[in-house]
Model the fold of this input.
Amino acid sequence: MAHMFLPTSDRAISHGYLDDLDDGPDDHLLIASHIAHTARKIFNSYGDLKRLRESSRVRTRCTPRWATYRHFRLGIEACWGVAAEALALILYYLAVEEKMSGDDIDRYRDVAEYTWYRNAEEEDIDTWHRGDESYEGNPATAPVVFRVLRLAYEIGDRRASVGEPAGSIARSLAMYREEMRRANAPPLYMD
Done:
């Protein structure tokens, strides 16, 4: 089967170019786009960053003190050690607000790991580690991300114990597609 180019921009997704990727082997394109979109959606101010850090209790020493919410908006593309905490907070948000299960959060983490490896332009690809000046490597392999993954499973177990249904990847991606469709829809004309 020949590979075809699939645009992964928000506009391409909203036009349905990736609709056939619901649960196939290439759904990583849509999930990676959803992760990036979620970063842009949840990191809009210092207050947003502070609330997420406090509610999740996720904080890591690899993130520099001077990092701002603008750095976190870059998600796994962020530099200077910010990417790992950004990804952890994104996954926490998906688990709590979009009610994704621990298995779904694990899948998103896997996609983030794969996407980073695929986009890395370095010859020497490595796991998250302390470099010369800051932390570097694949942020999806950072300990803070695995702490959030364990937390997502705990949240899912608590939901199950009280009978609250968990969300699903399909539902989250459908909501994401609809949000992108509305954002890119032409304005209504008034006659």
